[in-house]
Amino acid sequence: MVARDGTGRKVARSVTSCVECLAWGLTYCQGVCLACYNFAARYRSHAGECAACHRQLPLKDGYCRLCWCQARHDRAATAADARSAVVLAPWLAQVRHHQLFFAGMDNRRAAPRALPRRYGQKGRPLKPPPPVATRPATGGTQLALFASVPAWDYRQVRFDLRHGGAPDNPWLAWALHLAHLTGEARG
After folding, report:
1. DSSP 3-state helix, strand, coil percentages of the chain (rounded to 5)?
2. For a surface tag, which of 10, 71, 123, 127 has the fewest beta carbons within 10 Å of its beta carbon?
3. According to the model, what pLDDT value does residue 27 have?
4. Mean pLDDT in runs of 10 for the chain (187 residues)?
5. How many whole angstroms separate alpha carbon 130 and alpha carbon 167?
6. String of b and e for 55-84 (b: at least 16 CB within 10 Å)?
7. Do residues 60 and 38 make contact, with C-beta atoms less than 8 angstroms apart?
8. Which helix (H) or strand (E) is 92 found in, with range?
9. Nearest to 6, CA basis, from 25, 36, 34, 43
């Protein structure tokens, strides 16, 4: 089987047993699966004898990746209360056997893009600017923002500017216009 790595080069991947976690599946590099490769990259300086299986491998807190996977499996199967379902350290000392598993058996690729690729600026398309507004003339009266709705029922007066237009209020239109100008001026 031929796959491509992050740089686009062809990498031969074979279906075999990982030399570190003994999982059957696609090997990534140097005879190990991708998970063991990443585990070793993080804990390579901590290589030594595993406290549970006594094999010479990269260790995290004294245990190899296979023992961590087995402890996670044992915890999920036999955890009695909420604390033991979260904490993993007590289960590591109890590992006496390993349940073999499959790893990396799917060689799926990402689904093709549904939308055509846009060229030019990246990110979301720009929102259209609000309509130009002028400062409302004040005649000494307080304008009601929502006239027909009782003051205690706020569910009816919620609006979302992302999905609809602003309510027909001259002060709100003026505030949106000022916010847009400030955002354009200061980025």
Report:
1. 25, 15, 60
2. 123
3. 81
4. 58 76 83 87 84 90 90 85 80 86 70 72 75 77 63 59 70 86 85
5. 12
6. eebbbeeebbbbbbbbbeebbeeeeeeeee
7. no
8. helix 89-92
9. 34
Q: What backbone phi and psi angles, to 5 degrees, belong to 10?
A: -75, 135
111-156: pLDDT as tens digits: 777 777 767 777 777 777 888 888 877 766 666 666 665 555 555 5
Two structure tokens written together for 154: 């706020």
Q: Which residue has the tokens 């602003």?
A: 166
Q: Are 125 and 115 in contact (CB under 8 A)?
A: no
The confidence score (pLDDT) of residue 99 equals 83
DSSP 3-state of 70: helix
Strands (E), the chain: 2-4, 10-12, 15-17, 24-26, 47-49, 56-58, 102-103
List the structure tokens of 182. 């400030």
Sequence-distant (6+) residues with CB within 8 A of 50 are 56, 57, 59, 62, 63, 64, 67
- pTM here is 0.49
